[in-house]
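Minutes, structural biology subgroup

Action item carried over from last meeting: produce the structure token record for Serine hydrolase domain-containing protein (Glycomyces endophyticus). EB confirmed the sequence was re-checked against the source entry. Recorded below for completeness.
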Amino acid sequence: MNPKVPKLFGAALAVAAAVALPASPARAAADPSPEAYDAYLTELVDASGVPGLSAVVTHGGETVFAAGYGTDSHGDPVTEHTPMRVASVSKSFTAMAVMILVEEGAIALDGTVAEQLPEFAMADPRAEDVTVRQLLDQTSGFADTTVDAIELEEATSLEDYVSRLGDDSLAADPGTDWAYCNANLNVAARLVEVASGQSFADFMRDRVFTPLGMGDSATRDEDVEPGLGYNSLFGVWIPREEAAGFLDDSGSGGIITSAADMGRWLVTQNGEGTQLVGAESLAAMHEPSAVQDYGMGWSVESDGTLAHSGNLMTYNAVQWIDPETGSGVAVLTTGAGLTDVTWAAMEGLTAIAAGEEPAAPGHDRQVIELVLGAVSLAALALGVLGVARSRRWAERRAGRRAWRIALRMVPVLLPSVALAAYPAGVSFISGGRTIPWHQMFYFALPLTVTLMVAAAAGLAVAVARLVRLRSAMRSVGSAA
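Output recorded by EB:
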């Protein structure tokens, strides 16, 4: 997911996903000393409090800096070889797998998916016209608004995933609109399996990871153990199992890798070092579609740089390359909170690489969570006070018209209304991505808890007032 959302909600209101990247960082042009990168990241990790972070900077065919900070869930120091989940950064890897097979003639890039993957079918005749290229640049017509994203998360394999699309439809004619939807890259990953005769895990290992020397990488945690990620609740980082969902072998977000391996990936993406495809195919992956500044797993910025972020419930990651200067940056973190530390870190590293002064690391997460914590305490206190004063409130309003009483109840019920609309509101802000309730208890946790406390306090006051009002009205009736 690669969202652009207001700072107040941060990454929590974007979840995955994920329709526009922030403005491009400065173009990199030089290679400062490793100490400059290290000093910046040390300050950033200290300021953000993120439990574990790793980063890599490349230039030309070389890795000029790679390091890790903090500790993992096992208590071991994070290094450049610590495996982490990179979520939607995986999309560019899946695109590469497809392009390898395109060059070998096993997949036709502009041929339809239905012709090359006979098991692919949807309850929409337009699906027969979806091409492989449209899967990769996300112009197929797939959208979370017309596919059952929650059901798809229950898939047990890529084959099962594709079969679950049978009763879904498209949101637009293929090639006419862009929508960020994980189904695109998961169908593409299944096509890789069928076209190659290998599992997606084996293909990625044999044809991508091994040739590039990416020994820390895999598509499933049974092959590379990433450990637990973290969520922050009012400033305290809590180790969590990643949210249940389709991750193993997922073409949209299943890659597990390290900063060191990401360095090799950035180098090849910049056309240096070991090449998996020819220059023409590499360029095609970096070209935007006709309807959106998005290539094949890369957001294409106006200055020619490319980037893509990845957000899971407990991990964040980002990658960035500048094909003109041959520079690249990737940042991975084991902590997912209300702000995305990886994007800020990437911007700082690219500024240093360009010989510029990076912005001072901020304390956005701590400030936001401090405010939310204060709001939670205030809501709790007001709830207790409201219940305590409910008898006096009721006595003063006994005998008044019902509509006037109802109006006075509206303020205390507003938090409950906001809580009920919470997932739908987040989905709307996230550009139509489907955000189920259970995901609200991960990196959106502080906001979710605050809304729940406010709603519970309001409901308690409302119930207390109604009970007291009923009693007061009986008393008035008896006196009459």
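Discussion: The first strand starts at residue 52 and ends at 59.
Next step: EB to file the record with the rest of the batch.
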